[in-house]
Amino acid sequence: MKRLDLIRHLEAHGCEFLREGGNHTIYVNRKTRKSSAIGRHREIIDFMARKICKDLEVPPP
After folding, report:
1. 2 φ, ψ to 5°?
2. Angle at 33 between CA 31 and CA 35, to 5 degrees
3. Exposure b/e, 4-39, CB count within 10 A at least 16 = b
4. Which of 6, 48, 54, 56 could staple 29 via S-S, CB 3.0–4.6 A?
5. Three-state DSSP class for 5?
6. According to DSSP H, which parts of the chain are helical?
7. 9-57: per-residue pLDDT in tens?
8. pTM of this prediction?
9. Is the separation of the CB atoms in 18 and 32 below 8 Å?
10. Are 38 and 57 a contacting pair, CB within 8 Å?
């Protein structure tokens, strides 16, 4: 899955950008107080996209 598609999906479900790390972007779901790191690759494998969604407690894409 494309990284930008994953970010759009997360933001559509209430997640927000928190900060940039060294090699990752950190997103947070303020409702559930959960956060997750998204690698800065153009493509994110489907397993990792599902894990990020699970960490942030949003439905998988």
Report:
1. -70, 145
2. 115
3. eebbebbeeeebeeeeeeeeebebbbeeeeebbebe
4. 56
5. helix
6. 3-12, 46-56
7. 999 999 999 999 889 999 999 999 999 999 999 999 999 999 999 999 9
8. 0.92
9. no
10. no
